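Attaching the record inline, Q. Sequence:
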Amino acid sequence: MSNSNTNNIYSFIALFNDGYAFRNIFEYLKTEYNDCKFYFKRDSIYMKQLSQKQDMITEIIINTSDLVQYDFYSDSDFSKGFDVSIMKAALADVGKKDSVKFSLLKNDSAFNIQIITPNNHNFDNNAKRIPIKSVDEIKIEMDEFSRKLDNPNFVWPLSDVSKNCKTISVGCDFISLSLYSKGCKLDKICGNNSVEHSCKFGKTDDTLMTGLNSPKINLKVKPLYKLNLKSDNIKNLDKCKNFSVNTNVKFYFEEIEGAPIRLLIPIGCFGYMIFYGIHIEDIETNKQK
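Structure, as predicted:
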């Protein structure tokens, strides 16, 4: 196919060399969303969407300059919605060594997904169709964050975050987060509001040296503020463990009572996801709903 023909036929073509990381985006999204809408631009593929329960936000940014191939032939930016379960099923067979071609023909009613294995480089065989659908969005109203993405409060290994988020979320409805300047503490809240289990990421206290050759003393420090998050939202972060290998999670929070916590998790070598944890105002009220 010549370049001129491609330009006339396609809206975009994206080739993900790390098809497994691309697949795992939708493994995670399925835990929170039935439908999603992606925005397609010359320099990025993007989504930012409030969950159905309106208790968390997911933002995904794919930097198209980091893809093996990204050709954008549309005359302008555009957005398209789709059923996440259909996309997840289409990518279910993608292995760790596979690539994925993601494309849309002009005026077509469905995306095309093609899995390229190490032994099969024929882009045109076995394309799977992902029907495009209208997706209503809930408007997100949020104050601008003062802390920029290049200045996280702290950084912690994704493997440890994933494992502990899954473990602490079993058998409870809410997780209480105490946020410190360089760390956070997660408490598992039981039915009687007692703490059953805790885990920590980063630094949640200060160390005082009492003198030369003297033992260190850990000083208790008050948290900047606390958040109550739905346990399911914390547990589902375990699905992010396959986004990237041997990578870290960046934690961000504001020094404003009740402001959402943000977690930035790299996706392969081509993008990242930001999880926004939204404070549940009244645990007791929400338990009764």
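The CA atoms of residues 86 and 237 lie 21 Å apart. Residues 19-29 form the longest helix (11 residues).

More tomorrow.
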